[in-house]
Write a structure and sequence with these properties.
Helix content: 40-55%
Oligomer: single chain
Low-confidence stretches: none
Shape: elongated
Radius of gyration: 32 Å
Distance between the termini: 94 Å
Number of helices: 13
Order of helices and strands: HEEEHHHHHHHHEHHEHHEEEEEEEEE
Number of strands: 14
Length: about 425
């Protein structure tokens, strides 16, 4: 049977790999210099507020749902601070053992100096790597790599990278798990969101079978005694105490005294009593149904918004600084302005044409207008009509745009202005 410790380390590895890969795959990344927000492979421009709003609200309610259903399991299993803090402790412990075994003849103070020196060297390299990955969430990775290779410390990205490297190094040498109880607000937020059905780690010993070995206290990364209360702000629900108690009590042929439980008075997570599937996953009251429905609402809104999104956005507006002009040949000219934004990853071209305006011609060169991925194109063009009937000041017509290769079409209503009589 896989212990909670083994399960947690596997989840740590999975989320560490995700942390490394996400900015390179553009799954979640906010490119500050380009003012782009990347989500699920989509490149969202800063003016696409509706999609960005649904994405951020979905992520926020995902955190809320996680806290309401499963308490601080995120802290123990998925939080980068926990993952890297425990990794730094493990590396330091491993180095200390290796130095002690390799150089037993050295005095303890010397071995400690060597251990600390090696640990700081390893952590310095790791801090640079982790800071590079973190800054990649805000700066395009290739651009950041060129800045790092040139030892850039005078631009915003370079200064940010140096600052994050220093903070990371100090965090994992001095702060570590103390960050969870002194700086991070998530533990206090969990205290507000949790209720009588939230998943907890709890000590239950109605028959007073505890042998006071205190192994649960010794293995706790946060340095607490879970027997005192399941609501301690330091507890991150890592379940190391559950494994420790189970190991000791199994030798005595007795059940463990520490469990994952659904609320202080709820049943055990490991309870094998038949019950509906929705209760097994934590859907236990109307509050959780509402939270899940809100989460599904924002997820659906995000899905619909992304589905309706067009890779190439075309906007056309009239230029009314001059209502119209009459050319030497007597034709009436109206001026229009276009803006094309290619928000996809392939080159695009937009063809402009006129509908419902007899004998009109469009003066635009080149037509189609080509736009490279991630770029915009703006310009002006004129539409003219021959002299003749001018009994209408305003003529309604349509500008049609056809995009290649996405095969998207738009019909943009427009008005053509002309004098009411010949001049």
């Amino acid at each position: 049977m896989v212990s909670f410790h083994q399960l947690r380390k596997r989840v740590h590895l999975l989320f560490f790999l995700m942390f490394l890969a996400l900015p390179f795959l553009n799954v979640v990344r906010f490119d500050i210099p380009k003012e782009r927000f990347y989500f699920a492979g989509y490149e969202l421009w800063i003016n696409e507020f509706a999609i960005i709003f649904f994405a951020l609200m979905f992520l926020m309610f995902l955190v809320v749902a996680s806290s309401v259903f499963y308490g601080r399991v995120y802290c123990g299993y998925m939080c980068p601070q926990t993952i890297f803090s425990e990794a730094s402790v493990a590396v330091e412990t491993w180095l200390r053992k290796r130095v002690t075994r390799r150089f037993p003849q050295w005095k303890p103070p010397v071995r400690e100096y060597v251990t600390r020196g090696l640990f700081y060297a390893v952590l310095a390299v790791a801090s640079v790597l982790l800071s590079f990955i973190f800054i990649c969430y805000f700066v395009e990775p290739r651009d950041l790599w060129h800045r790092l290779a040139s030892l850039d410390i005078h631009t915003a990205a370079g200064v940010s990278g140096a600052a994050v490297t220093l903070v990371t190094f100090l965090d994992f040498t001095l702060v570590r798990q103390r960050f969870c109880t002194t700086i991070c607000p998530y533990g206090y937020l969990q205290g507000l969101l949790g209720d009588s059905n939230t998943l907890l780690v709890q000590y239950r010993d109605q028959d007073h079978q505890c042998i006071e070995c205190k192994k649960c206290v010794r293995v706790c990364q946060m340095g607490i005694d879970i027997r005192q209360s399941p609501f301690q702000i330091e507890c991150i629900h890592c379940a190391e105490c559950i494994d420790a108690c189970e190991e000791v009590m199994t030798r005595l042929h007795k059940p463990t005294l520490i469990h994952y439980v659904w609320g202080e008075k709820g049943e055990l997570l490991s309870d094998t009593t038949p019950r509906p599937w929705y209760r097994r996953v934590g859907l236990r009251d109307s509050k959780r149904v509402v939270v899940l429905l809100v989460l599904l609402f924002y997820a659906s809104g995000l899905f619909v918004a992304l589905g309706m999104r067009r890779a190439v956005l075309v906007q056309v507006s009239p230029v009314r600084a001059t209502l119209y002009r009459i050319g030497p040949d007597g034709r009436v000219y109206n001026q229009f302005r276009y803006l094309i934004a290619n928000r996809g990853d392939k080159p695009g071209a937009v063809v402009f044409s006129i509908q419902d305006l007899p004998d009109a011609s469009l003066a635009l060169s080149p037509n189609p207008v080509r736009v490279q991925p991630g770029e915009s194109a703006a310009g002006e063009f004129e539409i003219s009509r021959p002299p003749g009937r001018r009994d209408e000041l305003v003529s309604h017509f349509t500008i049609r745009t056809d995009t290649v290769p996405t095969r998207e079409s738009d019909a943009i209503p427009m008005t053509f202005l002309a004098p009411t009589e010949s001049k």
